[in-house]
Amino acid sequence: MPARSEAQQKAAGAALAAKRGETRVSDLQGASKEMYETMTESELEDLASTSHDDLPERKET
């Protein structure tokens, strides 16, 4: 599942880094912390690997 915004892609990247032990879980906040707790490493890889060339900074509601 590709990311829908740059913000989502970046949050997934931060959560993925914490899952892999590259950063501390205590450094996560907001969406990245929730992603860390609820998503698998594979799911996070899919979101984080999305190219954000054509993505909006934030998803419009």
Structure description:
- The chain has one domain.
- The model has no long low-confidence stretch (mean pLDDT 88).
- Helix 1 (6-19) packs across helix 2 (31-38) and helix 1 (6-19) runs antiparallel to helix 3.
- It has 3 helices and no strands.
- The protein has helices at 6-19, 31-38, 41-48.
- It is mainly α and 61 residues long.
Q: Give average pLDDT, whole number.
A: 88
Order of helices and strands: HHH
Radius of gyration: 11 Å
Our count of domains comes out at 1
Secondary-structure-based class equals mainly alpha
Note the total helix count. Answer: 3
Helix amount = 40-55%
The counted number of beta strands is 0
In whole angstroms, how far apart are the ends?
Answer: 19 Å
Largest sheet: none
Weakly predicted, low-confidence segments: none
Walk me through the topology.
Elements (H helix, E strand, L loop, with lengths): L5 H14 L11 H8 L2 H8 L13
Helix pairs in contact: 1-2, 1-3
Give a nutshell description of this structure.
The chain is mainly α and about 60 residues long.
Characteristics:
61 residues, globular, 0% strand, single chain, mainly alpha
